Amino acid sequence: MKERYFDILIKTLDYIDEGIQIIDNNGKIMYSNKSTKSLDEIEIDKTIGRHILEIYPSLTFETSTLLQVMQTCKPILNKEQNFINYKGDKISTINTSLPIVSNNKIIGAIEISKNITTVKELSEKIVDLQTELFKNNTSKKKSKRTADYTFVDIIGQNNEMLKLKTLSTKASLSNAPVLVCGNTGTGKELFVQSIHNSSSRKNKPFIAQNCAALPSNLLESILFGSVKGSFTGAENRAGLFELADGGTLFLDEINSMPLELQAKLLRVIQDKRIRRVGSTSTIDVDVRIITAMNTNIEEVVEAGLIRRDLFYRLNVISLIIPDLVDRLDDMPLLIDFFIDKFNKKYNKYFTSVSKNVFNIFISYSWPGNVRELEHTIESVISLYDSAIIREEHLPYQFNKTKLTSDNNLKIIKPLNESVEKLEKEIILAALKQTNHNITKTAELIDIPRQTLQYKIKKYGF
Ligand SMILES: Nc1ncnc2c1ncn2[C@@H]1O[C@H](COP(=O)(O)OP(=O)(O)OP(=O)(O)O)[C@@H](O)[C@H]1O
Ligand SMILES: [Mg+2]
Fold it and tell me: Which residue's CA is the closest to the ligand 1 atom numbered 12?
């Protein structure tokens, strides 16, 4: 009975928003609830039994709150911890970590982590906005441009990529809204920034805002601004539309924008004027809108995640960026580019990848697309000193691909060799079944009697 309640309790932990993790006294992860996946982006099963620093490589014995508790045997309450997960996202958490003691001996530690990444980013963004506003109010200087990429930074000669570059170069000559679609890490932001930097708006602001995971009212006041007293803590503050005046406003993950806000966005795009939250007057704005989403367009529209009227407004020019697995012909180019980039950064002398690593790279699924390739090469170059990137240098997510790729290599041999082997097996089995009756065997495997006789002679049965 007790055990049943214990099982229920453990299952319940998966429904809690906070991440919960337990390590043993060797620092190995013994338990993670489902929410920890949203922090480290790794399947729970893959983390169990592994050392905490292996799963969170950007942490150290000093910065990991769990390992600190193990060392000091003292609880840590509500301490901020920052790390970079394997997708390269910066994650901030508030942790409470407690030692687990049995018979006066510390046998492990348990930690509860609250993800505050979004709240933190939001408050930082607001601070940035205030600074930007301050600069605009106190000097005649133009806003700082935040778009760094141009078309030359987009590596790719795959046919689809060349078409996309031509289309986006044309897009930069017009003011029409652009919708960029593609999975995570495919280079959406590169295209968006390049369009801005090639357009006549290049000396005006480029402002990017992610629409995901922000409560509707906060996003509204961030986009359109607010007037003092319109809601608790509201100040007279310009929104991103005003700040981006004359330039480009990039709304990322537009499919996550709450529907009621989408209706307001549509009105702003049509009227070219905004109304700050709580204000009675309107302000004219001249902003080019570029939007992006990392899901399939049809699915988003079908699922009603984006209003059709808004969708048609935004989707005047659409760029669909292919996954890395769909443009493997760019792999050699990308590998060379990133090797060169990180040789310079880390002062190393890598020249290429081994044949095996290349095979692994073209067999791997690349869920994080070009970003994942970039991080893979950066991690190898930063950690090792060699001329060639070899299999043993690759991070753990390639282990499975290494095996599959080895297996594939094993079955790759001259085709006639494999065909003959199979033919021999079939003829032998048929002969056995018919008690070596040639006519019946020939009928059974549907070949002429003479051919069968020839093959029996050939294989020496
Ligand atoms: N074609 C490319 N050439 C060179 N670098 C690239 C290319 N595509 C992506 N990258 C690299 O990958 C990183 C991720 O690209 P980007 O931020 O544009 O992806 P994204 O599609 O916006 O992803 P997300 O949906 O996760 O925001 C970039 O910082 C860049 O360094
Ligand atoms: Mg992006």
Answer: 371
Q: Write out the chain's pLDDT in tens, 461 residues.
A: 667 788 888 888 988 889 999 999 999 999 999 988 878 788 888 889 999 998 888 889 988 999 999 999 999 987 778 788 877 887 878 889 999 999 989 999 999 998 877 776 675 566 466 555 545 544 444 444 467 899 999 999 999 999 999 999 999 999 999 999 999 999 999 999 999 999 999 988 898 888 885 666 678 888 998 887 665 445 677 888 998 899 999 999 999 898 889 999 999 999 999 999 889 899 999 999 999 999 888 888 888 889 999 999 999 999 999 999 999 999 999 999 999 999 999 999 999 999 999 999 999 999 999 999 999 999 999 999 999 999 999 998 888 776 665 555 555 566 777 788 888 888 888 888 888 899 999 988 888 888 898 888 888 77
Identify residue 453 by its one-letter amino acid code: Q
Domain annotation for the chain: domains and CATH numbers: 2-115 (3.30.450.20), 119-320 (3.40.50.300), 325-411 (1.10.8.60), 415-459 (1.10.10)
325 CB within 6 A, ligand 1: no
Q: How far apart are CA 273 and CA 286, in angstroms?
A: 8
Distance CA 59, CA 26 (A): 16
Ligand 1 pocket check: which of 180, 209, 290, 374 to mutate, most ligand atoms within 8 Å of Cβ? 374
Collect residues with CB below 5 Å from ion ligand 2.
188-189
DSSP string, 287-339: -EEEEEESS-HHHHHHTTSS-HHHHHHH-SEEEEPPPGGGGGGGHHHHHHHHH
* Gap from CA of 315 to ligand 1 centroid (Å): 21
